[in-house]
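Quick illustration for those who missed Monday's session on complexes.
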Amino acid sequence: MPRHARLAAVGSLVLLAASTASAQALAPIRLPAARTEGGKPLMQALKLRATARAFAPDALPAQTLADLLWAAWGVNRPGTGLRTAPSAHNWQEIDVYVVLPAGAYRYDASANVLEPVAAGDLRALAGQQEFVKDAPATLVFVAATGRMKGAPPEERQAYAWADAAFISQNVYLFCASEGLATGVRAYVDKPALGKALKLAPDQIIAFAQSVGYPKK
Ligand SMILES: Cc1cc2nc3c(=O)[nH]c(=O)nc-3n(C[C@H](O)[C@H](O)[C@H](O)COP(=O)(O)O)c2cc1C
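Prediction with flavin mononucleotide bound:
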């Protein structure tokens, strides 16, 4: 089957399809083009930036997810492949995995597609605090250390954590601008989540960050 035929039409139904999808293969999700205009002025977003630990169950619309991912780690200078966050040596070693009720995906920024990783609701594995399973989306920042050419092995993790932290702050500011709730965390059972996300031996999880609507 040609690849374009496998791309799922994006809609909140796709993002909402929780347990029903667990036994089925996931299709790639072509995201809508991100809206790269508007939002709150930076100083207002900085005033509002905060960590949330409670989320309403409502799903994120596909457009919001697309905007969020672009803000996090999208390509902001087309033709160069350069991104909304810096990375040491431009290694671009961080992949953003997106854990949704229907399954887990990897964000392909240049194609603007979510590539399937694992079917089923893995959200409870994305952290060890009670609220984690309630957030409609959790981003997991995964470093592919094999891309960090020339980095001394003992420095790889520090670079990867720093690069993931820039992405995390983009997420915080986007959420502050959009009235969304978010919180980054290191408190994750990384071996269990890494296994569920089918990570390769050179991939390491830096942080997870949940995104959703504030709990009323
Ligand atoms: C690297 C890092 C790891 C964190 N890990 C967790 C975590 O596992 N669980 C959690 O609830 N908050 C976590 N946080 C959020 C901090 O607790 C939070 O940023 C801090 O309390 C200040 O609150 P604020 O972000 O609202 O200003 C983490 C923050 C950072 C930067």
